[in-house]
Structure formats: structure tokens, C-alpha cells
Amino acid sequence: MDKRHVVTCFLEHDGKVMILRRSERVGTYRGKWAGFSGYIEKETSPLAQACIEMKEEAGLDADDVELVKEGQPLEVVDSELNRKWIVHPFRFRVLMPQKIKIDWEHTEAKWIDPADIGRCETVPNLREAWQRVVP
Questions:
Q1: Mind giving me the DSSP string for 66-80?
Q2: Structural domain containing residue 91
Q3: List of long-range contacts for 26-34, beta carbons under 8 Å, 24+ apart
Q4: Could you say which of 3, 49, 69, 106 has the lowest number of CB atoms within 10 Å?
């Protein structure tokens, strides 16, 4: 089974969390709701990769956010893809949400109550990843 390490970044503002619908142009889980995410590159720490993904996918710099919590990695097995994801979850508070500009990887973004994550059609185990970053 193929094993991949990825980051998932949750952005919060005013008690809400942002989720994003993955576009048809991404490799996996098209049309599903997710956080900002990406593969962890060799020689890059999970936190550094999280910052890279937020810059690429949301247009946010490190000084536009505040790290709330880095959660314990979560193992997610997708037997259809024959892949084991090791998800490194992060929670950031957005200081200036008006600066967020999503890129081609997502078709829409919305702010929701964190309790509603489980009611959305998400990438596998998104709710569990969120629970890892709840203080």
C-alpha cells in the first residue's frame, strides 16, 4: 500500500471554520469539501508545508495567520486508492480573512460552524482531523 504524508490546514475566524470544495482539476477527491492541503515535500517539516499550502491556495503569508494548534497525525486508509494517508492537521486563526484568495485547486469556499463538518460531503476523515486540533 502506497503511503503519503499530507498536511490539512483549517482556517478559523469568528468561531467559524473554512472548508473548500476541491476542483475537477485536482488528483483526488474531486468535488469533496476539505481544508487547505498538500503533500509534504522531502526535507520540509509539516508546519513549513502547511505555510506553503496556505500561501499557494489561499494567498496568505505567515503573518496573516496565527497557529492555534498542530494536531497529532491521523492515519487514513483509502482502499480504493490503495493508499494510506498520514494527515498532519493544523489549525490557524486568520487575522485578515478578506485577504483570502483561493486558487484553481478549489471551486468555492465557505465558513461553517465546526460542528457541521461531519454533515458535509468531505474528503475522508476530515471531521476526525478537525477533532485533532480542537484545544
A1: EEEEEPPPEEEEETT
A2: 2-131
A3: 26/105, 28/81, 28/123, 29/123, 29/124, 31/121, 32/121, 32/122, 32/123, 33/120, 33/121, 33/122, 33/123, 33/126, 34/8, 34/106, 34/122, 34/123, 34/126
A4: 3
Averaged over 72-93, what is the pLDDT?
Answer: 96
Q: Look at the chain and report how many structural domains it folds into.
A: 1
Each residue's pLDDT tens digit, 122-134 = 999 999 999 999 9
Q: What is the CATH number of the domain that holds 86?
A: 3.90.79.10
- Return the pLDDT at 135: 79
- What Rg do the C-alpha atoms of the chain give, in angstroms? 14
- Assess contact for 91 and 16: CB atoms under 8 A: no
